[in-house]
Amino acid sequence: xxILEIDNMTKVYExxxxxxxxxxxxxxxxxGEFLAIMGPSGSGKTTxxxxxxxxxxxxxxxxxxxGVDPHQLPxxxxxxxxxxxxxxxxQNFNLLQTLTVEENIVLPLTLDNQSVDEMEKRLTMxxxxxxxxxxxxxxPNEISGGQAQRTAxxxxxxxxxxxxxADEPTGxxxxxxxxxxxxxxxxxxxxxxxxxxxxxHDPIAASYCDRVLFxxxxxxxxxxxxxxxxxxxxxxxxxxxxxxxxxxVGDLSTIRLP
Amino acid sequence: xxxxxxxxxxxxxxxxxxxAFFMASCFSVSVFFIYSMLMFHPDLGKGILGDVSxxxxxxxxxxxxxxxxxxxxxxxxxxxxxxxxxxxxLLHLGMERRQLNRLIFRETMLIGVTSIIIGMIFGFSxxxxxxxxxxxxxxxxxxxxxxxxxxxLLTLGVFFSAFMMISYVSVSFSKEHxxxxxxxxxxxxxxxxxxxxxxxxxxxxxxxxAYLLAMLAPHVNxxxxxxxxxxxxxxxxxxxxxxxxxxxxxxxxxxxxxxNWKRYRLLAxxxxxxxxxxxxxxxFVVTMVSTLAFLSVGVLAAMSSYTTQYNLVNPMGLIYKGxxxxxxxxxxxxxxxxxxxxxxLSYHLTRxxxxxxxxxxxxxxxEVLRESDINRLLYSNNYPIVSLAKGEGMxxxxxxxxxxxxxxxxxxxxxxxxxxxxxxxxxYPRVIFPKAxxxxxxxxxxxxxxxxxxxxxxNPHIKQxxxxxxxxxxxxxxxxxxxxxxxxxxEGVFNEEAPYYLENAGLNYSYIVATYSLFTxxxxxxxxxxxxxxxxxxxxxxxxxxxxxxxxxxVLQRMGLSDYEMKKxxxxxxxxxxxxxxxxxxxxxxxxFAALQVFLKDLINISIAKEVILAFSFLVxxxxxxxxxIRWRYLSxxxx
Lengths: 258, 640
Hints:
heterodimer, A: alpha/beta, Rossmann fold, six-stranded mixed sheet, 9 helices, 9 strands, B: alpha+beta, 3 domains, 64% helix, 9% strand
């Protein structure tokens, strides 16, 4: 059953220079899927993610999440929808500097007015899984990048959302920490059947996913599915990327006749 | 583009950011200018403002300048901190520090000079209006507008040097930071919040101790020690309160998950910790200034209540009191009558004989007045007439307070010397004489009984066994202030040896009005400055934290914070900043006035509670308006 259905979505930024960021894009995400969205800079990845996270509205086309169009919801309902159904992981972590690690993690629950017992229960579960128990009382600027991103993942997971949106989660991390974070996301996806949509530049990060969707200039370009072996999958991603980035190559491929 | 053009364009194109700072500067300049206009007013030397001393006003101006300096410096540094990224980029592009300093200096001077000019124009155009208010308030005949070079020169000199100083000092700001820090922004959150538990407790204890002392002050004799001691305690207590006590309380709350993990509280408390830690000094200054402003407004209100009640307490214009053997009596009364006639003041003269007797009921002296004497006075004053039968007596209340006590009192007594039995069972329903004239124990008896007072008291403790009272009931009593006794060999009203005494309500009133006007002017000044400052401080501080807060709210909105919830959260961010310093200042003042109320009641018997509460509610109202205004600006910055 698809958890996210995007149909013919178009986003046009009006202004002095009209800019079409997304052009008639359609795709679906199945429940429990780990999807990566790749594309060169300016291809509309972040715009797409903003629209899925409902902070931005499409000019035309529809988004259905669990059969509901969040953009049709009244403002307060929309906020509640975001708070309960979505989790976010950002490139620069976006932890609140004034809060400690544990406070950052429980933040979504406090906003939703949960009981302290419940919060503590979930906090222990999550922190043990993410091995954050040692640093619970530290501030975000006292911990390493990997720890910060794990904290952010904790914050995205604690309210058990149906969809996690990750925007370049490894963009600020070194290769080893990146690997840890990606494996963690993969584990979460497999064990809890949490659906994850991740926007990334990094082919290695994309290779951890079930499926990779490529977009270029706001349009659908290609999509490939996971292999048995991650190495092979990585290779195929690179191939598509070379097509995608090559400009000329891409143009040629579209006019090739059978 | 030359360097000068660059600085100029920076200011012009950053207009919106500069606007707040510019307006604040303009406002300080014009307030200062208006006061200088008053201070240099040519009529002031002629004593048109009563006895308002120029020294008092000059003192107020000095305080104003010092505070403005602090305020401008604070605004400037908050403002530079908000622009740190811009400076970072300039340094990154290869600008020398020296050049950057020159840039900041030029920009500040540009704003400074412009705001001095605009402020003076603005101030001058409003000084007529201000003079009108002052004239109305001090009941002067006229206070004309004038044009002189002194106020302009003073304002220019003071503020030019102030801006020079601020530019130099704020230039040193950029030296402390590295380019990278500037690029990141200055408002970084530090890892740990340092505070000292001991000082936190000290702050709390000092304030409580000061309050206790203030409550005790009117009841003990070492008043002077307390007047010195309490402000010191309060000052230190307030400082520790903001630097440590609040942080201590917040830290304790943060440790209690049950208390802390509640909806908006988690974020609000964390934010407050950050705000308090970074702005303890500012909050301290705001609190102390607010306390001063509140005090002056409160004193003002009290004074105005005193002046309006003055006529009630002193219904007579002039009262002359003399011993039976006073050799100057005739001469004095004649001179008083002449002086009154010279001034064309109509009067109604009543003469009293007051006899002192010993009462058997209390074994103390009692002053006895005759019924027909007092009735003549009462008649001319349109007060109710007294009618007493033989053997009846009536109390004369000294104060409103007495009136309540004596109302239901009944005394059976005998005037010992002449063996006349009197039953005193009522009190005259109004205060007739001011306090200094007749003693606490004064009664009216019927003419019949009064005739029988043959024997004068032989009690050696009683001075002036018989004295004469001359009361002048004057309608235009305010105009009697220069009436003097001639000749006056004992010089002055407070000479115990003198066989005579003159109570001049008009003169007393003129002293009060003069003090009142001084307080009015100083109080107005302080209140204006405080209005300017307390809101603006917070505004500039918010400006510095804007970027971090914007980022924070963006994250929260993504996480699903509705607009309504955001407003709630912003309320919780802003509310303590506005109302904790204010609340503490109000609390300080409440205790001062509570003490003062008790003290004043003993002294002049007026109640200031009503006026003070009224003035304070007005101030609170203004602060609430300020709060909503700034919240509105803040929200408009925070919304995407």
